[in-house]
Design a protein that fits this description.
Elements lengths: L7 H38 L7 H14 L1 H55 L2
């Protein structure tokens, strides 16, 4: 649906708001993941039988892979990231449409002015 020139600023503002809201949800999802990873790190820190960093990293990975909440949080993060990418694409599309609409309007004005000047030169 093509918008009129005066409708684009509002549509762009709404699309920007959608991107901001998605960015907030993305931040919340990242914080939740960090919390779950912190819990895994805490568990690994108290497992004294782990001898080196490689064993601790492997155990951390194992703990996280067994955690269904972590898997769900990762899925949520991926879904929100895709949602944000789509919202940003929509916002850029609106901005580009607005630029084209402004150029079209400028071209129409220029053509009208050119037509008036030509008629004045001819004496119509």
């Amino acid at each position: 649906m093509k918008l009129s020139l005066s409708q684009y600023p509002e549509a762009i503002a709404q699309a920007t708001q959608v991107v901001n809201e998605i960015e907030y949800r993305l931040m919340e999802a990242r914080l939740h993941l960090a919390h779950l990873e912190g819990n895994a790190d805490k568990i690994v820190a108290f497992e004294t039988h782990l001898k080196n960093d490689n064993q601790r990293k492997a155990r951390r990975f194992e703990i996280l892979q067994m955690n269904l909440e972590y898997k769900h949080a990762l899925d949520t993060l991926n879904r929100i990231t895709l949602e944000k990418a789509n919202a940003v694409a929509q916002l850029e599309h609106l901005r580009n449409e607005f630029s084209v609409a402004k150029l079209d309007r400028q071209m129409a004005i220029a053509l009208k002015l050119t037509g008036l000047e030509t008629r004045e030169l001819v004496g119509l």
